[in-house]
Amino acid sequence: MTGIKQVRLSGFGGQGVVLAGLLLGQAGVFDGKYISGSNSYGAQARGSGCKSEIVFSDGPVDFPHLTTADILIAMSQGAYNSYCGDVREESGLILYDQGLVTPKENLRVRHLGIPATDVSVKRLKNKQAANIVFLGVLIEATRIVSPGAIRKAISTHVSERFRSLNLKALRTGMELGRKAHG
Amino acid sequence: MASRWVKSPFPKGTYYFSGNEAAAEGAIAAGCRFYAGYPITPSSELMERMAVRLNEIGGVFIQMEDEIASISAVIGASWAGARAMTATSGPGFSLMQESIGYAAFTETPCVIIDVQRAGPCTGQATKVGSGDIMQAKWGSHGDYQVIALSPWSSQEMYDLTLRAFNLSEQYRVPAMVMADEAIGHLRETIRVAAKVEVWDRKKKKGGAPFDIEGEDGVPPMPSFGEGERLSVTGSTHDAYGFRKTDDPKAHARLVERINKKILNHKRSIIETEDYLLEDAEMAVVAYGFTARTSLYAVKRMRKDGTKVGMLRLKTLWPFPDEAVAEIGKKVKKIIVPEMNLGQVAGEVKKYVPCDVISLSQTNGEVIQPDTIMEMLRKI
Amino acid sequence: MVRALEKYIRPGVKSTPFCPGCGHGILMGLILRAIDDLKMDMKKMLFVSGIGCAAWIPSPHYNGDTLHTLHGRALAFATGAKLYNPDLCVMVVSGDGDLSSIGGNHLIHAARRDIDLKVICANNMIYGMTGGQAASTTPRGSKTSTTGEGNPYRPFDLCKLVEGAGATYVSRFSVTQPISLIQSIKKALLHKGFSFIEALSPCPTQFGRRNLLERPEDMIKDLIRRCILEEEAEGLTEEERAEKIITGEFLS
Description:
The complex is a heterotrimer.
Chain A: E1 4-12, H1 17-30, E2 34-41, E3 49-57, E4 71-74, H2 77-83, E5 93-97, E6 110-114, H3 116-123, H4 130-142, H5 147-157, H6 160-181
Parallel strand pairs in A: 1-4, 4-5, 5-6
Antiparallel strand pairs in A: 1-3, 2-3
Chain B: E1 3-7, E2 13-18, H1 19-29, E3 34-37, H2 44-57, E4 60-63, H3 67-79, E5 84-88, H4 90-105, E6 110-118, E7 124-128, H5 133-138, E8 147-149, H6 154-171, E9 174-180, H7 181-185, E10 187-192, E11 195-199, E12 231-233, H8 248-263, H9 266-269, E13 272-275, E14 282-286, H10 289-303, E15 308-313, E16 315-317, H11 321-330, E17 333-338, H12 343-351, E18 355-360, H13 369-378
Parallel strand pairs in B: 3-4, 3-5, 5-6, 6-9, 8-9, 14-15, 14-17, 17-18
Antiparallel strand pairs in B: 1-11, 2-10, 6-7, 8-16, 13-15
Helix pairs in contact in B: 1-2, 1-6, 3-4, 10-13, 11-12
Chain C: H1 24-37, E1 45-49, E2 65-68, H2 74-84, E3 89-95, H3 96-102, H4 104-113, E4 118-123, H5 158-165, E5 169-174, H6 178-190, E6 195-200, H7 216-226, E7 227-229, H8 230-233, H9 238-242, E8 245-251
Parallel strand pairs in C: 1-2, 1-3, 3-4, 4-6, 5-6, 7-8
Antiparallel strand pairs in C: 5-8
């Protein structure tokens, strides 16, 4: 369907998948889009599979859940294996964590490997920032939301204590995105 | 009795709210200043937001010891003058039923939001269902009416919660927002207007609080402490609240009035929406989240040339019998997809001569568009 | 009812609905005497009750706001009204079965929160209205319509229960101790916080006739004989004490 983009962020509980989805959706709202976002996770708070799905649209969204992903972000091998087959062929895009995911070779979907966790640990000294690094890459590679909107979303939803870390992670991600995207 | 326009307590603008958060803001906008509740998945975020917001604006929030205590505290606060509410999910909704009957019989305005999950019993606490539709109408014993609305978006969690308060105050009746897990947790773009319309309850010094002659059927409602020396009882009572536990006429009169005051106004209470029905040969009758799925499926089928439309039930109780009957005259087949074993399909059958096909799903997941399209193709 | 108290009775109310010999009528008058002594404004008083004989003490008889609720839930309704309008003086009058069996959870939580509610529990140790079934307050060994061989279980000590749960004024008196009971009700009315008075009230119809106290005066005499003050209990043997009911102000 034209005018609709569907993004799935996935990983395991504790990686910040839900927060990243919230920020991405909020940024879309700031950009004036119609957004429908939903999450799913297991009953336990940490460690089980987790995904956050955002539908971006220029008009009201009929079915608010994701039908086929245009973009998949996979932060774990389990998430990649579960969802890589559900990405739109040819035009789709998969961003995966280079250190944690070994991609399949036979898929007709563009792949970008991102050392998100590695960079978070080494450059940001916080493994928890990988989710935001991914958002930076995504924005640089696709402009699905504007950089200004995502910064505003971070200010809205992230507590002051972690705000500068998140903004730095975003910049780092955007740099990585520029390199990877070429 | 009249409505007035007041400034929205939340600044005008566009927000990214979950359904549960939006419902809390709708309640605050409606003037809700009392919340009593008990934690239960998947409605807890609503209570958490009310705790924060009522603290900010000077309302009363209390976490009670269980759900029947919660709805009972809501009724007590309502008689003390509050616009009051609670929210819950299946098991908690079950526990509330006796007090919901009390609210209906004593004509106490109150709002209950049920974020439905997969039942029966504890079922799957984090999964979706819409199995409480009949319970909303028939959950407490005896014959009474409630108003039950069915939101299909985060926006409507805001709008219909506000409307539930207004209807509840206007008709002195418990009003329910029959949401579900998928809508409660769905985060969407919502618009908050600068001003909202709110209804005030009718007041009349010395007026009988429990009977009234005439078409309206809604007596004035004083509050405790206003010097009216109210007598409120869940036993059968006369116009001034005196118990009438042996008087057949008093019982018949009261039961009839609390039912008629809603049914006589059903045309102003009920809201439905038509989609692509003008030339339709088949119709999907849907509500809640499933109406979103249905609309998507119907539009897809239209592209393939299938003459199908959708009737969306925005109000579930009182049941939109006239709108359903109207569609029943036009189409050959009606499909009712729902996340229960045909609760609304059974109601639809009462009012139409054509075939009604129940498309049930009770696996804790939302119905996918393909499931509806497959059924439409088959028939 | 003496003339001076008539103004506290709702116009239109006729005789009380209670059986001959029931203690609830006495309690009904004692509460009004306490209210009259303190010159309380009935327009600001809300009386909340549950279901059962005792729930009819205030509803509809008292000429303030009365809220006759569901079985067991009076305290939850009262909590909502008091929190939303703290200017109301909220008194809950209900029975032992209502407040401590079906409503037991609400009782301990209302006490825990120490919300300013004045609770008068009319304890007749039995379910009167429904036909004399055993209550959570029926003494061990007593006969009821559901314990023909004598109640095998221990009763609640309601005062200890609510004190343990956090009540800040607690007393027990019998309607056979009217002066003490009036004084105690006055103290509860002036106390800020959760006040609980267990008011022992005889039920000859359902309790007395099953337990060798057939005539109304037998139950009254029995209460007069058995109710003693804490200090009077000090010199008694264990055996003597066991058949007495300790009354008094336990927490104030």
